Amino acid sequence: MDSMTLILFGATGDLAKRKIFPALFNLFVEQKLPRRLSVIGLGRKPYADSEFQAHVELAVRTFSRRSPEDRLILDEFLRSFRYAALNVTNKEGYRELLALVQAREQELGISEQNRMFYLSVAPEFFGVIAENIKQSGLGSGRGWKRLIIEKPFGHDLESARALNDQLSRAFDEDEIYRIDHYLGKPMVQNLDTLVSANPFLKALWNNRFIANVQITASETVGVEERAAYYDGAGAIRDMFQNHMLQLLMMTAMPTASQDTTGNIRRRKSQLLKLLRPISKENAANHVIRGQYEAGTIQDQAVAAYREEPGVDPASTTDTFVAARLWIDDPAWEGVPFYIRTGKRMKEKSTRIVVEFKNPLREASGNAGRESVPNLLIVQINPDEKMSLQLNGKNPLSGRMESVHMDFAMPTHQMPEAYELLLSDAMRGDATFFAKWEEVELAWLWIQPVLDAFEENLLPLHRYPAGSYGPDAASVLLEEQGFHWWLDDASREKELLEVDIG
Ligand SMILES: NC(=O)C1=CN([C@@H]2O[C@H](COP(=O)(O)OP(=O)(O)OC[C@H]3O[C@@H](n4cnc5c(N)ncnc54)[C@H](OP(=O)(O)O)[C@@H]3O)[C@@H](O)[C@H]2O)C=CC1
Ligand SMILES: O=C1O[C@H](COP(=O)(O)O)[C@@H](O)[C@H](O)[C@H]1O
């Protein structure tokens, strides 16, 4: 693609500053942007073009993984940027915007009129912006048009459907790119290849060999400055409905050769359809919700959720959710998938742990105690690495111990999720964007759980900040004889090292 106009709603906001401008700059340096690029930033603040360019420069200097040392390169990048103040509800303003877009297209010799609309604004504006894009003619250029939207995509099943209906009046499904930034993480994008392209893993990727799968996204941060949004959303909407279910889909979807097209999005939807529903009445048996109390994280005392600025002091919002899921597919029958996510936990870690069956141990009970289960650990955040836990014998002590084969992705100059996603969207590759079918299926699955939360059918477990969440989340696994791996590495080492000399 030779040329494009990027029309960025919310260009004065936090996401644009921290993620979008740095990603664009990195792509520019790597020559992955169209040769002729026009960026029109929009917000309500009254910026002159030069002020906006200074704002972009500061964002790049502060947040980019590449240092913009070469002034000439930075200036060339900034020259693409223009700004217009536009209140998104002001219909007339869109005609002026169209005139600006066209003027820039002419100035830059952009004849294709490819237009990318990025809505980095609150979701209540998505509908009105899409409608105004259509009414004003902005979406009727000679080239393609695409819409990038950010989460949250709806608040529940009904609102998500209403939002999708609104968007569908202005954009076709294949023109809508719904960002789930977890799908932009390099290690998540690697999962399909990891399983499909390695015969030894592919052969083992089923219930004959896998005992359980554990997916964790723990965070040390609290609600930060986002109480207004978070207190109405909770971990279930903020993380579980989107990121966590995406990680589940990416892990358990059928592998590529079973599906000749190799279409990841279709395979993910296929998997979601097989996810065993959890009824509202039964939610308490499979889902744990929690909220953090005051505690200590990395030697710093932190406040309870209910004491955070902007949070209702009587809030019952979940800051932690764990669940046990089953997939009604012959390949996964009997394999529990445990998922958990929480704020103010002991460590920042996003990972997938696949625990393999241990026939030695199963056959010989305690006698086979010395062998440990094989684990495949896919660490997504903060480092990106894979690790295989195997059994080995320490030649010095003669003791059997778990050994780890590690492969760490080079952290140096690793592309950010937003770089990969923006670049894909510009090329029209929607593989790592959520399509409507999977978003709807995710809401459908989660709606009874939301209802159970709403009706207080589950206890709200308190957990101290700086812990691994409520103990009840461990009970979910203990019921099948498992435990969360890697929560307490030192305890595990002790358990696993057995003297066999
Ligand atoms: N920040 C983040 O890390 C993440 C954000 N998101 C999502 O991205 C979107 C943007 O978030 P974020 O940047 O944090 O939000 P901010 O509140 O920082 O920015 C909001 C932007 O919207 C603009 N805006 C607000 N009201 C209007 C209006 N009536 N007309 C025109 N522009 C308006 C603001 O412009 P102005 O200030 O000039 O009025 C500003 O540029 C949201 O949907 C959020 O949920 C998703 C994941 C992470
Ligand atoms: O979307 C969100 O994700 C972040 C966690 O993202 P990560 O890339 O740091 O793992 C989370 O803090 C935030 O609440 C949520 O909205």
From TrEMBL:
Its EC number is 1.1.1.49. It catalyses: D-glucose 6-phosphate + NADP(+) = 6-phospho-D-glucono-1,5-lactone + NADPH + H(+). NADP(+) binds at residues 10-17, 44, 151. Transmembrane segments: none annotated. The active site is at 243 (proton acceptor). Pathway: Carbohydrate degradation; pentose phosphate pathway; D-ribulose 5-phosphate from D-glucose 6-phosphate (oxidative stage): step 1/3. Signal peptide: none annotated. Substrate binds at residues 181, 185, 219, 238, 343, 348. One of its GO terms (molecular function) is glucose-6-phosphate dehydrogenase activity. The keyword NADP applies. Residues 7-190 form the Glucose-6-phosphate dehydrogenase NAD-binding domain. SUPFAM superfamilies: Glyceraldehyde-3-phosphate dehydrogenase-like, C-terminal domain, NAD(P)-binding Rossmann-fold domains. The keyword Translocase does not apply. HAMAP family: G6PD. NCBIfam families: zwf (TIGR00871). Belongs to the glucose-6-phosphate dehydrogenase family. This is Glucose-6-phosphate 1-dehydrogenase. It comes from Paenibacillus thermoaerophilus. The gene is zwf.
